[in-house]
Design goal:
It is a single chain. By secondary structure, the chain is α+β, with helices and mostly antiparallel strands. The chain has one domain (16-97). The chain is built from three helices and three strands, in the order βαββαα. It has helices at 30-47, 72-76, 88-97, and strands at 12-19, 50-56, 60-67. It has a three-stranded antiparallel β-sheet, covered by helices on one side. A hairpin with a 3-residue loop joins strand 2 (50-56) and strand 3. The longest helix has 18 residues, at 30-47.
């Protein structure tokens, strides 16, 4: 079943979750977590998002994001899923640390 279309509006607070495929780790170490947080911070600067809460687990994360503008879906493209959409250098480093290639 497909996920329902996200309803966006100014001032919304959304629960956003990302999970690794097959319950695999998306964060191998603290460097991966720092890289994710840096990228999330950049997305917040560009979109105006406010992170109200976050939890980073080895195989998933949870974010509570307030969107002063109705732009959660547009900003989602700025935050990496499983780090593969991060900068090419970050994605390459993450795949290397997991011994994966494209």
């Amino acid at each position: 079943m497909a996920r329902k279309t996200r309803v966006e509006f100014e001032g919304a607070v959304d629960h956003v979750m990302d999970r690794g495929g097959r319950r695999e780790a998306i964060f191998k170490n603290d460097a991966d977590r720092r890289r994710f947080l840096e990228t999330l911070g950049e997305a917040c600067v560009r979109t105006g998002w406010r992170v109200q809460a976050l939890v980073l687990m080895s195989n998933h994360d949870h974010l509570m994001i307030e969107t002063p503008q109705a732009n959660l879906v547009a900003g989602d493209a700025l935050v990496p899923d499983d780090m593969d959409n991060a900068s090419p250098q970050a994605a390459r480093a993450q795949r290397t640390s997991f011994s994966r290639t494209l």
